[in-house]
Structures are given as C-alpha cells and as structure tokens.
Amino acid sequence: MARGIPVSIGGIDFPRKGDALEYLRLMLWRYSPGDRVSEDDTAFLKAALPRHPEADEKIGAGIDHFLVRSDEYGKQCFWVVRTDSTTDRFSYKSLV
User: Fold this and answer.
1) In the chain, what percentage of residues exceed pLDDT 70?
2) What is the pLDDT of residues 19-40, one digit of tens each?
3) What predicted TM-score, i.e. pTM, was given to this entire model?
4) Which of 5, 8, 20, 86 could form a disulfide with 96 if both were Cys (CB 3.0 to 4.6 A apart)?
C-alpha cells in the first residue's frame, strides 16, 4: 500500500497531503462570503501562502489579513488583503 507524503504547515504536522487539504477545506467552509478570517486561521494561512506556486505575486507588498469571498464563478475561496489594500484570490489546493 502506498504511503502518504507528510506535510508540515504552520507548526502542524499532517501525515498526508490529503489531510492538509482537508484541514484547509474545512477552514474555508467555517466562513461565509464576506467574513474576515480569524487570527488563528490567518497565522496558518500566512505560513501556508509561501507554498503557493505564485507566492510572490499573491503576497505582494505583504499580508495584512485574509477574507473569504466568492470568485468570478461563484465559488467560495480565500482572498489575501495586502498591506497596500490590494487583494487577490487563491485556491487552498495550491498550498499543499
């Protein structure tokens, strides 16, 4: 049987990538569109966002906070709000 690939993000060790994805999925769905992400979840997302393939673009001037909003297709997703007040969406699936 194949073994999962362990992942560590923000001080949390996940036995498999799928476990990290599930953690992020559940985090996303704790919020409604328009909600600001809690301080604890913000700390986790700040640790995870550098793993994104376009991390430099997503982080930009620096991270102020995160929101949950809908994208142009109506799907709920995370949005980074940068220190210069610009925003960008990202998929939690790109963080693992």
Assistant:
1) 98
2) 999 999 999 999 999 999 999 9
3) 0.92
4) 20
- Closest by Cα among 34, 94, 37, 86 to 59: 86
CA 95 to chain centre: 6
- In whole angstroms, what is the distance from residue 72 CA to residue 86 CA? 17
10 in the Ramachandran plot: left (φ > 0), alpha (ψ -120 to 50) or beta? left
DSSP string computed for the chain: -PPPPPEEETTEEESSHHHHHHHHHHHHTTS-TTPBPPHHHHHHHHHHGGGSTTHHHHHTT-EEEEEEEE-TTS-EEEEEEETTS-EEEE-GGGG-
Q: How far apart are CA 59 and CA 83, in angstroms?
A: 9
Count of beta carbons in the 10 Å neighbourhood of residue 7 = 20
Question: 63-70 and 12-14: which strand pairing?
Answer: unpaired
